[in-house]
Automatic annotation (TrEMBL):
Membrane topology: Multi-pass membrane protein
Top-level taxonomic group: Bacteria
An example molecular function term from Gene Ontology annotations: methyltransferase activity
Keywords attached to this entry: Membrane, Methyltransferase, Transferase, Transmembrane, Transmembrane helix
Name this protein carries in UniProt: S-isoprenylcysteine methyltransferase
Keyword Transferase: yes
Source organism phylogeny: Bacteria, Pseudomonadati, Pseudomonadota, Alphaproteobacteria, Rhodobacterales
Pfam families: PEMT
Length: 144
């Protein structure tokens, strides 16, 4: 049951909640317009990556078995554009509401997602796609 609840998007929601809760403690002034701009960027990267994976008919499940290696579009910028979009959205909330602790939350999210999900995903991709994955991993950074 514990593993069933351990999904990247659950950690993303928790990161947003922590960032949001921190503003009550600090009572700082935010930048709604800057937050909106970052939100649009983060959502755009996230949605584009999801659409590309769906078009390729490969799994979005971080523990699933991939059927295709998606390396074009946003996957030419980051090997993990869905997670990158999440990080940008956490930073957008931090900017929007004036919660600088969101920077630390975002950094913690990067570390957690890398250790809990990305490393295992990369192992599956390497096992499944071999040299194609290795070539892509040499060209494209894990984050940006």
């Amino acid at each position: 049951m514990k593993r069933a609840l351990d999904w990247p998007q659950a950690w993303f929601v928790l990161a947003l909640a922590l960032t949001g809760a921190s503003t009550a403690l600090l009572n700082l002034q935010g930048s709604p317009m800057g937050g909106i701009v970052l939100l649009v960027v983060g959502l755009g990267i996230f949605a584009t990556a999801v659409a590309q994976m769906r078009r390729a008919m490969t799994t979005l499940n971080p523990r699933g078995q991939p059927s295709k290696l998606v390396t074009s579009g946003v996957f030419e910028i980051s090997r993990n554009p869905i997670y990158l979009g999440n990080v940008i959205m956490i930073l957008s909330l931090a900017l929007w509401i004036g919660a600088p602790i969101g920077i630390l939350v975002a950094a913690g999210f990067v570390k957690l997602v890398t250790m809990r999900f990305i490393l295992a995903e990369e192992d599956r991709l390497r096992t499944t796609f071999g040299q194609d994955f290795d070539d892509w991993a040499r060209r494209v950074r894990r984050w940006i």
